[in-house]
């Protein structure tokens, strides 16, 4: 998930930069909307991946914690 987010964010950034070039208003509008959506999805994927890794790490710490015995 984290890797997919790291790929989506630069692609979306390029799309937003390309939307600045005034070819057609509809084209620019679609590129801006898609860029913002892709940025949001990329950020969400990175956030979910980090949270899942943290939960997995916390479970491993709890299984190796001998102080609870």
From TrEMBL:
Transmembrane parts of this sequence: 7-23, 29-51
Protein keywords: Membrane, Transmembrane, Transmembrane helix
Keyword Transmembrane helix: yes
Superkingdom in the source lineage: Bacteria
Name by which UniProt lists this protein: Uncharacterized protein
Organism listed in the record: Gracilibacillus halophilus YIM-C55.5
């Amino acid at each position: 998930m984290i890797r997919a987010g790291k790929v989506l964010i630069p692609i979306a950034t390029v799309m937003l930069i390309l939307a600045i070039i005034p070819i057609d208003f509809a084209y620019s509008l679609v590129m801006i909307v898609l860029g913002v959506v892709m940025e949001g999805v990329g950020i969400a994927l990175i956030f979910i991946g980090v949270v899942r890794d943290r939960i997995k790490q916390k479970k491993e710490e709890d299984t190796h914690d001998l102080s609870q015995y």
